[in-house]
Design a protein that fits this description.
This protein has 200 residues and is mostly beta strands. It contains 4 helices and 9 strands, in the order αββββββαβββαα. The protein has an 8-stranded antiparallel beta barrel. The N and C termini lie far apart (34 Å). Bound molecules: manganese (II) ion. The site of manganese (II) ion has 6 residues, from strand 2.
Length: 200
């Protein structure tokens, strides 16, 4: 699994002339770093959580999606870096291709790095936080807001992390956004509508 910012695995696994996924032109549109959570109805349905770090989207596959309850520890498996413009991808990856299935932009927005370094006046870079296996970010999305910790678990290999809601004013043990807010943050469409409309 790539630890540096590296799109080679992304490109290697795809025939980019045969899938609607972006090639990765690295365009930067927002002054603040972005995040996206894509619902991916592949062979196993999961949520792809991606945050912009140094020109790429650092990515994790979160089987159950994010929780707003600080008591939940959501498994997050780090996957290949993706190009920045992947954050705008919503559509259908054709049968027979890597990750075949429908992709919905379930949530999107910007984030802030909450981590301070040894000198408390200076924030630790996201890259350094991820290298150390403990990042803390504030998400400003449409569905997901507030602080989240990303913690690498040492036991089960280097790609396994936990995504945990911090206990702040946005924490809510009763909300179940992945079950109750099931439409696209980009287009308002359901997974089924995306599948039908993009498959023609
Ligand atoms: Mn995926």
């Amino acid at each position: 699994m790539s630890k540096k910012n590296d799109l080679s695995q992304y490109r290697k696994k795809r025939k980019l002339d045969q899938t609607p996924e972006p090639e990765g032109k690295q365009k930067k549109t927002s002054p603040k770093p972005i995040f996206v959570i894509q619902l991916h109805d592949a062979s196993t349905r999961h949520y792809d959580f991606r945050i912009e770090v140094n020109g790429v989207l650092k990515s994790w596959s979160v089987p159950k999606g994010p929780s707003t309850n600080p008591r939940d520890k959501r498994l997050a498996i780090q996957t290949d870096d993706h190009p920045l413009d992947y954050a705008e991808f919503e559509g259908v990856i054709p049968e027979g291709h890597y990750g075949a299935g429908t992709v919905m932009i379930w949530d999107k927005g910007t984030y802030r790095n909450l981590k301070t370094g040894d000198d408390e006046n200076q924030s630790m870079s996201m890259e350094e936080s991820l290298k150390q296996g403990h990042a803390a970010i504030w998400l400003d999305g449409q569905k997901i807001k507030g602080g989240y910790a990303l913690i690498r678990t040492k036991k089960s290999g280097e790609n396994q992390w936990l995504l945990i809601k911090m206990d702040d004013q946005e924490a809510d043990a009763r909300r179940r956004p992945v079950s109750t807010q099931t439409k696209s943050a980009a287009s308002g469409r359901t997974l089924k509508e995306i599948a039908e409309q993009e498959n023609n």
